[in-house]
Amino acid sequence: MTLPDLPLRCLSSAESRTTTDVVSGCNTIIDFWTTKCTRCPDALDKLDKMAQDPQYKEVKFISICCDQLDGAREIIEKDDNPRWSHMAHYFMEPNDKETAKKVLGFKSVPFYVVLDNTGNIVQKGGASKVDLDNVPGKLVMEENKENSKPDQKIAEAPEERVFVLDDLEF
């Protein structure tokens, strides 16, 4: 399954992009969120921390706010030190969110979509359903017994996982 090609607006530049354009050629973790979600800031904190981890240097981290453009900007740019600065932030219009919900099968946020570098969705779901430690592009440290130094290896894409979420509205 591939990501639907939907319009986005970059929160930092106001540039119009599409979902497939922003993930093209990259192992990517996308977090769909809303400004009213109480769990979303913690999820974005976790992803921003992961984005700073050298094991994830081959993974792109993207947030897509699905409800309020100005509200998303206010949250991200609240202080002199912007929140979640190691991620790219986009806004999706509510009607496009409805298309994404239908195609990707989500009914609540935060909702993650993990893609490999060819644009294939390898995982999707809520925080309890997606294994963010097992994403394509993550460097896996393995002990090299010959010289007792860790070797780095890029993780393979896991098989796609599809989960049905309960009927929560957002």
From TrEMBL:
Q: Which domain of life is it from?
A: Eukaryota
Q: Could you tell me which residue ranges the Alkyl hydroperoxide reductase subunit C/ Thiol specific antioxidant domain spans?
A: 15-129
Q: In which compartments does the protein localize? A: Cell envelope
- Keywords (A to Z) from UniProt: Cytochrome c-type biogenesis, Disulfide bond, Redox-active center
GO MF annotation, one: antioxidant activity
Which parts of the chain are coiled coil? none
What biological-process GO terms show up in the record?
A: cytochrome complex assembly
Q: Which Pfam families match?
A: AhpC-TSA (PF00578)
InterPro entries referenced in this protein's UniProt entry, alphabetically = AhpC/TSA (IPR000866), Thioredoxin-like_sf (IPR036249), Thioredoxin_ResA/DsbE_sf (IPR050553)
What PANTHER family does this protein map onto?
Answer: THIOL:DISULFIDE INTERCHANGE PROTEIN DSBE (PTHR42852)
The molecule here is called: Alkyl hydroperoxide reductase Thiol specific antioxidant Mal allergen
State the species of origin: Seminavis robusta
